[in-house]
């Protein structure tokens, strides 16, 4: 997937937060530690360093939501991260993103920390980021 395609899907999926730009995706993908799995409907962008995987973002286009694409993409991300040597992983998710939180918890993630007022929503509201971890 190109940075432009990633940015389009991200913008469709994240309407309550500032979506990432194609330039931001290109910058992240220039790192040898960063990888992407999925397709234009659903993708995950991650980074593996020193045996730890960070899920940078997972985005599923609204037209593809509710069909298991996000779960399939998350599982593909886990497999790709494990192949790259990850033994455990973490992610941040807005405390208001209940659908994502349920998905992550159903795939073995549990909350280990909370960053108060971390995200600024497009309406100006600030919400906490939950830090979730799981072994691979």
Automatic annotation (TrEMBL):
What are the protein's GO molecular function terms?
A: acyltransferase activity, transferring groups other than amino-acyl groups
Q: Does the keyword Transport apply?
A: no
Mind telling me which Pfam families this protein's record contains? Acetyltransf_1 (PF00583)
Question: Which keywords does the record carry?
Answer: Transferase
Query: Which InterPro entries does the entry link to?
Result: Acyl_CoA_acyltransferase (IPR016181), GNAT_dom (IPR000182)
Give every N-acetyltransferase domain span: 1-136
The molecule here is called Ribosomal-protein-alanine N-acetyltransferase
């Amino acid at each position: 997937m190109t940075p432009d395609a990633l940015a389009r899907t991200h913008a469709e999926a994240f309407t309550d937060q500032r979506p990432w730009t194609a330039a931001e995706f290109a910058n992240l993908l220039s790192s040898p530690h960063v990888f992407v799995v999925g397709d234009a409907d659903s993708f995950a962008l991650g980074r593996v360093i020193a045996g730890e995987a960070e899920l940078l973002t997972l985005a599923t286009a609204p037209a593809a939501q509710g069909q298991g694409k996000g779960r399939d993409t998350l599982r593909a991300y886990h497999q790709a991260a494990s192949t790259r040597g990850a033994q455990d992983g973490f992610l941040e998710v807005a405390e208001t993103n209940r659908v994502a939180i349920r998905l992550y918890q159903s795939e073995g993630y549990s909350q280990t920390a909370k960053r108060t007022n971390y995200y600024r929503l497009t309406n100006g509201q600030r919400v906490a980021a939950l830090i979730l971890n799981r072994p691979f």
